[in-house]
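REVIEWER CHECKLIST
Item 1: Sequence provided? yes
Item 2: Single chain? yes
Item 3: Sequence as submitted:
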Amino acid sequence: MKKTLQTCFYMFLVVLCAVFTSVTVQAQEQILLGWQFRTSALGGTTVSGDSLTYTSTNHASGIKSSVLSRGAGFKEYNYANSFACTTKVILDTYQTSLAQNGYIEFTFQPKDDFASSLSTLKAKLRRSTNGGDATWYRWRYSINGGDFKDLSEDRSFTADNQGVIQSPVDLTGKEDLQLIAANSIVKFRLYVWGYTVGVGTGVFAVGRSSNNTDYGITIEGKVYDYNQVINSTIQQAYFTDQKKIAKGEASEVIINKLIYNINQTPAGEDIHMSIYMISHQGVLNALKVAEQRGVNLHMIVDMSRSDSQVANATSLPWLQANLPDSEIITCVNDVSSNAINHHKFVLFSKVLTQEGVLSNVTFQTSNNFTVSDTKKIQDALMFNSSGIYQAFLRNWNTIKTYATSGMSSGFVYNTFNENDVKLAFFPKRGTGVNTNEDDVVESLNAISNVSASKIRIAMSDWSDSRPAIIDKLIQLRNQGANIEVFAKDAAGTQTKVKLRQLQALGATVRIFNLEEGAAAKLNIHAKMMLIEGDWNGKINAKVIITGSHNYTDGALKTNNEVLVTLTNSTLFSEYSQYFEEIKKIVPVVPVFQLDLKSIDLTSGNNSNVATFNSTASVGGVVNAFVSRGAGLKGNTGLPEGYSSSHQYVYTAETKSTFANAFDRDEYLQIQFETKNAVKSSLNRIEWIIRKSAATAATHYRWYYSINSAEKSDFKPINAVDQAFVHDATAAVQPEINLSEIPELQSIGSNTKIYFRLYIIGGINTSSTFAFRNLNGIPGFNLFGDVDNDLTESLLGWGLSTSNNGSRAEGNEVAITSNITHANIKPSSLKRGSGLNANPEYNVTLQRGFTAVSSNVVTTLEEAENYGNYFTFDISPKANVALSLKALHANLRRSSAGGNKYLWRYKINDGEFVDLTSEVTFTSTNTNGVYQPVVDLAGITALQNVKADSIVFRLYVWGFNTANSGTFAIGRSADSYDLALQIQGTSTITNPLPVTLAAFEASKLNNTVKLRWTTASEQNNSHFDVLKSSDGKDWSLLTTISGAGNSSTKIDYQYMDNNPFVGMNYYQLKQIDFDGKSTPSKVLNINFDNLKVVSGISVNYLNEKLTVFTNDRVFNNRILQVYNINGQLITIKDVSKMNGDIVLPISLTPGIYILSISSDNGISTTKFKAN
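Item 4: Structure as written out by the authors:
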């Protein structure tokens, strides 16, 4: 059966992450096919050389024998110990040899149930000394009757009576000669030429063999037996290439691995697939060929709602038409109207790899089988575990069963555990109803020793319906956890607000925007979490949590999903490195453009305008425009262009050099400024230049400067002259790479950047050069990345999200700061009594905070009297000192709105003090105008200030009509754009230790109740509750969050439901936000008076725990296992087990304590796990 071999997959195996352990069956390098000509394989007689064909004398097990033959351009020749030829026609050139079939040929074919990978082709060739002999040769090959392809370059060889061993031909780089499937036929041809004298005058031969091991031709490589599988387990991880994704390019690493697996599934084996979206033609074609090869295909394709229905609208009919012998099931999940089969897994009963044959292979990924998903951050896992395979297969069959009859009543949430791999199959349902547990929160709750832990998340969709996850992350961050979150802008509005709160607490947070605009385009489709630290009773655990499971309500309650948890997997380092690479990603979007289409030669819009402002920029920059240096002048008459020429007349003698251009300021200048609270990284410049003649300007150099327009501060991007590309209309110029300039990466907020294009060449003042649009492409494009820079932000209002997470409408009574430093209390932006946003006046402004004046107010005094101001306060928490640096504001007015303003502040109940003088503001820009930064660093009273409150007021006047024109703070262009911000630093001044007023322990039946009270708290992150059986070796019982800062009494308590028999010691450890800790006194409780049932013994062998109860009768019994530090390893209700108890459990070597509590009392014993 014909099989299309893979063409581009082998090299991926070299670079993809893979972990193999104890592989016991591996194919060995050997001679797969060979010919020796010393003696005939049939009778042992000397080979004459003139046989019409010659059968291979050696072939490996699993490889069919092959026949050596001649093409029509050759005839046989009697020459001992070889396979000899002479010509039938003149073969003087390669083209002639190709046309006249001047070749020697043989085939290579694996047998049934075998496959092969080829590494080397070797040959010993002989020619006579006759001048008419062949002098050149070339190897070629063909697969399954396809076109021939070159295998080697043209090679020459010299005459030698006994033949010459040629340089080997390396086959390992030929992807289609690796893992050649059973019964595939590879045909090899050796073309020879150089015969110039006449027909039949020269002799060419393969050989001569001097002994029985002297081969004329050999093919070397590996052969694989489909029935001999690798019997050790593997784990492999695959990831899309972040750098390609950041550029908007496709990365088909995962898709190619999937296609590879499909192509390497032997005939008669099974593939089970459950997929949300499938439309990638490469995958579809591979499935078609697999069915033709005899692979049994079983597919579940989702058609539950519009997105999968659209994605699969064409591919599903294609599959049904092209896979007539396959099982194709459409799934319509009915748990809710939005429920889906969100799986992306494929099961292979066998797959051939370079290492050997794998059985029971599971391929699980976040990557839909679509082209669009190849442009997203994705991960995939591959296992060859029978247990994992069967768990997924059971889930596949469950979905199949309920695909038509309904998931809502039939599906039951279930899990599978094997060797630190846990699978959780959703939806979280039982007996037809949803349960309330959240597996992700449970994983976060399992973290102990929180301040030493690290949590990293890369998440696709994160809805407001799962608030417990982000709330738990905030709690963990407050307790000192190191947290990094990377998410696409598909998070819910409330979730994004809380993510910003998490960022303000010191966590690393990056939200990538999928849309055009302020934030970078980077689509994260993975659903990954990494946890490092003490987790689920394991010290210094390294945990991977991945799968198809988004942080959405549907993923938890309605969808078919899987959550995969790997504990201490050898793949952790690959996942960790992938996260580190995500942190370095610079997604490239247009930072700003000069779109010159508005230069239409009308009045005020001609190509000689002094400056031209950016017409399209992301939210991270302001004040972007182009201008000319003093050595250039503007020229009219060029539509969609910014045209210039020299002021100075050059001659052939004076010439226009870079030195002249630099001295005379002959440059075009691009400048812009990063916004407050925003940082930028610049990637490249794409630009288009139009010159009136080739000699108008011949060369250029780009320079840049930061925060200075002084000539001496500019640095070169091009150190030498670069030639312009010329076209009379306009020409695209070579891209200018900025990514390698450190100063242009992570540029802080409120930074001015200047680029100068120095114009070199040209001798007159009439020839012109210009930035110009070309075919709708703007004449100048600066690409890079922008992100929030909150390093000095104390308070900020981003009005694209207001109090409830949605965009501000402008008429809210108050809006709470959505950037609030951890040492600062949230603040409300409000209006004074003289400003209003009453509905009757239709006062709204999306992404702003606006007002009209209730009165005619034309002076500052009237503004003071009427209360015409906006106000907010900055209130530090207890024992916090503030040093304020700057106040930033974007202000917006309508044509009849106030046109003057002034900032003031006061500390506590003091008098208001002017921050600025009177400012006249007349612009009516619809998006507002960023005002000059108000410098606070120079005000002594606002440095190292310890105050309950600092109040700021923005007084506004110039309203000539009451309740008419508007004045506003805003607008925020997007989530990166703060309309109002206070920058500065905060320090905790002489923080008092947490005053522990009481710490008590008391018995309560068979438990211990711990109570403690604080009289005050400063900088208190949390309490660690510690327990010991000897007062020396302590273990963590639990972590209780502190109040941070408090001056009132707070009570805490905790119940230890599992005290030791005998002495129990307890201690508190109070942990500050900066990681400092203070221990409490030690308390002890004695449980010697507990009834103890003796007579049990324990055996632990081969991951089985056997408890010998000696026929004792227990009612309502609970079994618990602790490590020597008192940490609970497992707890199980064994009431229904009669007699001896046998439990599967995996324990690391060490001493453990087993406890059985029941109505009869408590029985304990120690045992050792080896």
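Item 5: Key structural point noted by reviewer: The first strand starts at residue 17 and ends at 20.
Item 6: Recommendation: ____
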